[in-house]
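Records of this kind hold a single protein each, on a pair of labelled lines. Below, a sample record shows both lines together.
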Amino acid sequence: MPEVVESYSKYQDLVRISKIQEYLITTYLDDVEKYAKNDKQAIIIRFLISNSIKYAGERIKFEGFGESNYRSKEIGEGLRILEKTFLLSLNYPTTSAHIPATENFRKSPKLQFLDTGIVNKFAGVQASVLSNDYIEDVYSGKIAEHIVGQELSALNKNVLSKNIFWVREKKQSNAEVDYLLQHKEFLIPIEVKAGKVGRLRSLMAYIDIAPHIYAVRVYSGKLSIEKTKTLNNKEFILLNLPFYLISKIHHYIEKMIADNI
């Protein structure tokens, strides 16, 4: 959030930014009646605001969300109302590797929260995140993936579009790619790795069915472009992109493609 960034840049004070973040969430809680159609829905929406942060970056099911007794319809309606307030986003998967990427609304969505800093704050790891040099030292890969999702959302100029990911859900053959990014006529798979290394089996599974040979790994290592192969020996080009260059992802994808035509 701009006010949080400005405050921390000026004062380097975690207590000060925590108060700003708490105020933001309190404002959402206080405004629930503006969006709810009745008292019961207001209670559900407050429950979702208080509990959805815990599930940021995860695939969720509506039925019994947050270990509640609420039904799928009630949770679904509440989450979609909160989407309209831009507090969170429900990102659905596709099973295709071709454009246009068609979301499958029958499958479980990922829950993306408005702001990763707020997620860190209410997960109780904000101090750890800000005091560590390496993102893999805290919060595993969950927060790393969420950061990338927030950055990709910021790059999206189409208000009707949301982040999308790819899944293959078969018996003994599941795969999931963290994000798909459309770049011109290509639907580029993006895998997020919190550290400098990590297996890319799902990304390779996607490349095996894709009509192109381009992929991205976002990680804590150095910028590079390499030629490699899937487990089925399909050659492809992999852009290894550091976290701090996510905002330039289209530029480096363009370079990857241009250098390998």
User: Anything to note?
Assistant: The two ends are 40 Å apart (CA to CA). The chain has a mean pLDDT of 87. The first strand starts at residue 88 and ends at 91.
